[in-house]
Design brief:
Blueprint: H1 13-22, E1 24-27, H2 33-51, E2 58-59, E3 64-68, H3 77-81, H4 84-94, E4 99-108, H5 125-128, E5 135-141, E6 152-155, H6 177-183, E7 184-186, E8 194-197, E9 203-205, E10 216-222, E11 235-237, H7 238-243, H8 246-249, E12 255-257
């Protein structure tokens, strides 16, 4: 299977400028549709296993769940984290010693409602004060997104908002929602596309009316010292770790174990459970 479909860009400077301006940037056709379908199959398998055990799938609103997985659950994991665009963006924004700290996926099903506008964690001083991005979320859709699928909506340019006065420093008050709606941009990626965003950019999942679910893979990447690895507990088996390219080992923050143990998630965004409606 041919995974990579994009000729590596020789200069990611324009994409980094877009990321710093908007809080998100995308790469069309980063992977082949066949690669993306394999990723979707892996997410579906992992969801079935996670929803059947306590703490395996965390609610992010009605009919919407988030599942963390170990790298081995995604057959294309190495393809993904060695993609030249992911490496280029990570190095340019987070530095040469960036850390891969999270693998997971968000899945809304029919009946999912609009989420409240939010960010995924409180903004650190390096971001709201110094205007420096210290973590990234790389997203890849498992399907071609349509308007009925509750597309991801992001309020462009809000990643530097202070937010310290907000509920949990993550949820702006309802009287501020009009501004985010005016800045909001709904995204309709196709299978194989990849995006990078600051998880501090205000965003929400929209109402999902389609019978087709919309799974989205998330790779969390930190600058050294950002600290989000403490919210996760990735593991790989010793044989899998031994077979990884050295360049991947250098960036992957995980435990090497004899046997994988399912992840009980530590990062539960309580304010999303009930939805916005």
């Amino acid at each position: 299977m041919t995974a990579l479909t994009q000729t590596p860009r020789s200069n990611v400077g324009v994409d980094v400028e877009t990321l710093y301006r908007d809080g998100i940037v995308g790469l069309k056709g980063a992977f082949s549709p066949q690669w993306a379908e394999q990723m979707r199959e892996d997410m579906a398998t992992a969801f079935g296993e996670a929803i059947a055990r306590p703490g395996g799938a965390v609610g992010r609103g009605p009919q919407r769940w988030y599942v963390e997985v170990h790298p081995q659950a995604i057959r294309g994991f190495v393809d993904l984290v060695t993609h030249p665009w992911l490496i280029g963006i990570s190095e340019a924004v987070l530095g040469p010693d960036y850390e891969i700290v999270e693998v997971g996926f968000d899945t809304p099903f029919q009946g999912a409602r609009n989420q409240p506008w939010h960010r995924d964690f409180p903004s650190p001083p390096e971001t709201f004060r110094d205007r420096r991005i210290t973590s990234l979320a790389f997203n890849l859709t498992g399907v071609d997104v349509t308007p009925e699928m509750g597309p991801f909506e992001i309020a462009l340019g809000t990643h530097f908002d202070d937010g310290r006065a907000w509920d949990h420093e993550m949820f702006p008050p309802r009287d501020a929602w009009q501004r985010f709606g005016e800045l909001g941009s709904r995204k309709y990626p196709q299978a194989g596309d990849m995006s990078a965003r600051s998880a501090l950019t205000i965003h929400r999942g929209a109402e999902h009316g389609s019978a087709t679910s919309r799974p989205v893979l998330v790779i969390g990447v930190d600058a050294p010292g950002a600290g989000h690895s403490q919210l996760h507990d990735m593991m790989v088996t010793s044989d899998y770790h031994e077979a990884l390219p050295e360049a991947v080992k250098r960036h992957l923050v995980c435990r090497v174990v004899d046997e994988l143990v399912p992840i009980t998630q530590k990062h539960d965004i309580e304010g999303l459970v009930m939805g916005a409606d």
